[in-house]
Amino acid sequence: SGTDQILQVYWGTEHGLKTPKTPTCILFNQKQQFWNFGYDAVMKYKSLSLSKADNWYFFQNFEMKLQHNITSGMELKASDGKTLPALMVFSESLHCLKEHALNTIQEASFQTVCNQEEISWVITIPAIWSAAARQFVWLAARKAGLASDMISEKLIIALEQEVASLWCKQL
After folding, report:
1. Keywords on this record (predicted)?
2. Residues of the chain falling short of pLDDT 50
3. Based on CB atoms within 10 Å of each CB, which residue in 65, 67, 147, 152 is the most buried?
4. Between 131-143 and 86-108, two packed helices, what is the crossing angle to 10 degrees?
């Protein structure tokens, strides 16, 4: 009808799963290039032989690292102890989620091309995160292509509790 809404997205269906949230996991290959995110990252990493897995970079539950001592040059440790820049890990994750959202919209609207300039992105964060963590999220979102500059009206960093409250009101 053209006015259909996407209220729920399920993850992992290609792996026989159906969950409302994807795991916060990301995989980079041995050349430090983004490979995949979520269940696809988990499945690929688990399929690698031990000798090959040592050369890849697998990160999981890395969003919790933004609670303490955030700097723009901060590094994150992969599962085997190797590190990559945190900004790279977060921006690639946001970029992947952005592409997934755009593909979901396109499929739901029968391949109608949506104008990205019309989209406002909302990233939710815990209220306990510092101003430095919020600034870091802005930087990662810009690098991921969610905002063109630091004062973009198309990107909103919102507190999880406030968004949950608004959603309950909506219901």
Report:
1. Stress response
2. 1-3
3. 147
4. 60
Neighbours of 150 (CB within 10 A): 10
Copy the structure tokens of residue 92. 């690639």
Let me know if residue 1 belongs to a domain. no
Closest CA relative to residue 138, chosen from 93, 80, 87: 87
Contact 37, 43 (CB under 8 A): no
The pLDDT tens digits for 77-109 are: 999 889 999 999 999 999 999 999 888 888 777
CA 52: distance to chain centroid? 25
Residue type, 144: A
Query: The domain spanning residue 160 has which CATH number?
Result: 3.30.420
pLDDT at 71: 79
Q: How many CA atoms lie within 13 A of 46 on its CB side?
A: 8
- pTM (2 decimals)? 0.85
- In DSSP terms, 77 is beta-bridged to 83
